[in-house]
Specification:
Helix content is 64%, strand content 5%. It is mainly alpha-helical. It folds into two domains: 1-80, no CATH class; 81-123, no CATH class.
Length: 123
C-alpha cells in the first residue's frame, strides 16, 4: 500500500514477490494473570483473538494484492524468486539476528518470537 500511495513503483518498477512483513499486533497477557483466568474463558479469548487476527491478516493480504495489481497495470514487474533465492534471503536475514537480538529487540522477546516463528513455519 505504501509503495502504491507514494508512487515508488514508477522509479523502482521491479518487485520481488516474497511474503515479508512484521508482526503488526499482539495480545499479551502476563502468565500469572493468564493462570487466574478460567480455562473456558481462556479458550474463548484464544478463539476471539484468532478470529480477529485472521480477519486482519485476510484484509491486509487482500489490500496488498489489490495494490500490487494496480501497480502492475502501470508497469510494475513482479518477479518470483526461486527456492534457492529465497534460501539466500533467509540466510541473509538470519545473519542479522545477532545484531537485532539484544539491541533492537530484547533478548527474551526475540527468543520468544523465534519460537513462535518456528511453530508457524512448521504448520
Amino acid at each position: 500500500m505504501y509503495t502504491l500511495s507514494q508512487q515508488i513503483f514508477g522509479i523502482a518498477d521491479n518487485m520481488l514477490d516474497m511474503k515479508w512483513g512484521n508482526l503488526t499486533a499482539a495480545i499479551i497477557i502476563d502468565l500469572r494473570t493468564w493462570k487466574r483466568i478460567k480455562p473456558n474463558h481462556q479458550e474463548a479469548m484464544e478463539k476471539i483473538a484468532k478470529k480477529i487476527g485472521n480477519g486482519f491478516q485476510n484484509k491486509n493480504r487482500h489490500e496488498t494484492d489489490k495494490a500490487v495489481q494496480v501497480m502492475q497495470e502501470y508497469g510494475l514487474k513482479v518477479n518470483t524468486p526461486t527456492a534457492e533465492q529465497v534460501d539466500k534471503w533467509e540466510a541473509l536475514i538470519q545473519g542479522m539476528y545477532p545484531d537485532i537480538r539484544g539491541s533492537l529487540i530484547d533478548e527474551k522477546v526475540f527468543d520468544r518470537l523465534m519460537e513462535i516463528k518456528k511453530e508457524m513455519d512448521s504448520r
